[in-house]
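Let us work through a complete example step by step.
Step 1: write down the sequence.
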Amino acid sequence: MSYSMTGWGTFRAQGYSINLRGLNSKYKEVVLHLPSEFFAAEPYIYKFLNDKINRGRIDLYVNLEKNNAAKKVETDEKLFKSAYAALKKLYKAAGIKQEVPASLVIERVEGVVRAETAGSASYTWEKVKPSIEGAFDDFMKMKEKEGARLLADIGKRAAFIETEAQKIKKHFDTFKEEYIQKTRERLVKILEGKEAKSFLSLDVVEALDKHNITEELVRISSHIKQLESFISSKEVAGRKIDFLAQELYREVNTIASKVSDPAVSHSVIGIKETTEKIREQAQNLE
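Step 2: predict the structure and record it as tokens.
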């Protein structure tokens, strides 16, 4: 199957959720955004994703639901007594008769009360693997759907190029006949002699050869067939389509330089614009 580089996948597990995001990139990139509780599983998560994708950037985000997680509260009684005594002494030295509030020590002295998420060190690869696989499956479904849409669009654009290439061929046949006639008329006026008939035929052929676009049209047809073959097989890398689009652009550009005809120029512009669109779409495929 052909996959888009862009996509989104999610999976919600007990205590946390996983989100995957795919972006365009010339290279393969895996970027992990993990809380410290997942660090033990980090190398395994990276290898899993790196082995699964061919091209593009993929970001994985893990969000812990800390508000709903069980909390483990620890206190430091020795630190509390020491801090309370110090503050009480400070109050007395300042002439403050008010009793030192216990909340002042608890809230202002770091370490007196500590709250930690229970089980925070238990996110091993074995435990999170099913969640990672679930998020990745969801991610790939969207990438596959988007990839199919891109291929369908490229197929329509390829058909348009083929139609325009046929128009160019018809216009060229007309252009060729008109060119032959006009060239002969000009040469007859110059030479004014029946003995020049054989020379006229040869000269017209040589002049017309400079404007011959048969080879370019044949190569365009060949590239379109290859493109259609890629699309129908659905086993194609974006780089291959991008390369064919560049070749199509090159051929039609050569046609534009050889034939100065308004109708041909109109089709050439249409094909150029379409090949650029195909390249844009291809660059979004793995």
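Step 3: interpret the result. Residues 7-68+131-142 form one domain.
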